[in-house]
Amino acid sequence: MYPTASSRLPLGLYALTAGAFGIGTTEFVIMGLLMQVAADLQVSIAAAGLLISGYALGVFVGAPLLTAATQRMPRKAVLVALMIVFTLGNLACALAPNYELLMTARVITSLAHGTFFGVGAVVATGLVSEDRKASAISIMFTGLTVATLLGVPAGAWLGLEYGWRATFWAVTAIGVFATVIIATLVPADRSAPAPLSFRDELRVVGRPQVLLGLLMTVLGFGGMFTVYTYIQPLLTQVTGFADAAVSPILLVFGVGMIIGNLLGGRFADRRLATALLGTLALLVLVMGAMGFALHSRWAMVLFTGLLGAAAFATVSPLQLWVLQKARDAQSLASSLNIGAFNLGNALGAWLGGVVISQGLGLSALPWVATLVPASAFMVALWSLALDRDRDRASTPQDSQHAGECA
Transmembrane segments in this chain: where (predicted)? Predict the structure, then answer.
């Protein structure tokens, strides 16, 4: 459906990266604006924090619904429409006169998130040759990692200097830019996809291998967010860093995200199954070792960066694995996997809160978190075993058929 590139990556792929940057910025930037939003709209910090939960819920719910609603549209048209929704949603955030309308605008904006990344991943893999599909996914997701590294701190600075609405005006401008370059640079579909019915798509994503892939994503990122959600108190109350040191250390995490994301894509292009197991195993090792590093400042800086690298090295293998297991329903499966990333975010934050509230303390977080991606690793082994059993079951039949033909 899409042209491939043999040497240089197509410009359309970088257009998708720009859209991912804008969406990633608007998802996470609210974390640095909670106090300004709460004061301006006269709500509590806890209520302002629900703006994050509302967005995550919108991603989880909106991904399959919007994917189903747009399944008969050309994918380029879907991406442009989603960026328009994203842009208008951020414009509504900038203009929202009260908390209720701001929450509504955040949820509307979030609806575009899951489907954009889901459909965008399918489009990205169609823009390149077979041996570069995982790298294409990782490059698109680089927009998300760069948003965490640069977009979120810049948005927080804008909010501090000019008010939180200025941040949403800036993200609106990013949305306009991304919409224009996606419309210009992403090649048009040669024909509209011939989709399955939604019932048939649900049947495809209900296959055991697809469900296991989604479960790996939830567990892999659930473990990461069990630690990362509480990284500030870990660094300050356990390791002993000053509050001012947290932001520079989080930049190290962001750099690790970018490096891990790109390396994970390259490894997955070579051997997907090996990359899947290897990146999940690396995440387990990093989290386990982090438990020993909590009281060493230099070690915690190192392992914060390694945590970002290990976690985002899993993104491309997990996304490509789900795409391959759902060949007939890639857009829906891909969008559901984006929802699974966000579900892992929510479950990880919840699990970390349970650990703390039960009196185990902040120091227990890495140890408990290690068990979650370890479970994802076991699920991956199970999935690979199912593949081997299927291959063994099909081989005698193939041999018998060949003998009959002879």
Answer: 12-39, 45-66, 78-99, 111-129, 136-160, 166-188, 209-232, 244-263, 275-294, 300-323, 335-358, 364-386
Annotate 109-128 with b (16+ C-beta within 10 A) or e (fewer): bbbbbbbbbbbbbbbbbbbb
Please name which of 370, 373, 376 lies closest in space to residue 292, comparing C-alpha atoms. 370
Q: Measuring CA to CA, how many Å separate 198 from each of 117, 333, 373?
A: 19, 12, 31
Q: Per CATH, which fold does 7-191 belong to?
A: Growth Hormone; Chain: A; (1.20.1250)
CB-side exposure of 316: number of CA atoms within 13 Å?
A: 36
Report CA 248 to chain centroid distance, whole Å: 23
Is 0.85 surpassed by the pTM of this model?
A: no
**pLDDT digit string, tens, across residues 74-132:** 888 999 999 999 999 999 999 999 999 999 999 989 888 888 888 888 888 888 887 78
Q: Please state, in angstroms and as integers, the Cα–Cα distance from residue 101 to each residue in 42, 48, 52, 106, 111, following that order.
A: 14, 13, 14, 9, 16
Distance CA 106, CA 33 (A): 14
pLDDT of residue 357: 80
The answer, yes or no, to whether residue 33 has pLDDT greater than 90, is: no
More confident residue, 264 or 132: 264
Q: How do the domains of the chain map onto residue ranges?
A: 7-191, 198-389
Residue 384 CB coordination number (10 Å): 16
- When pLDDT is cut at 50, 70 and 90, the band that residue 46 belongs to is low
Angle of helix 99-126 relative to helix 45-69, nearest 10 degrees, comes to: 40
Check if 7-191 and 198-389 are the same fold: yes
* pLDDT of 356: 84
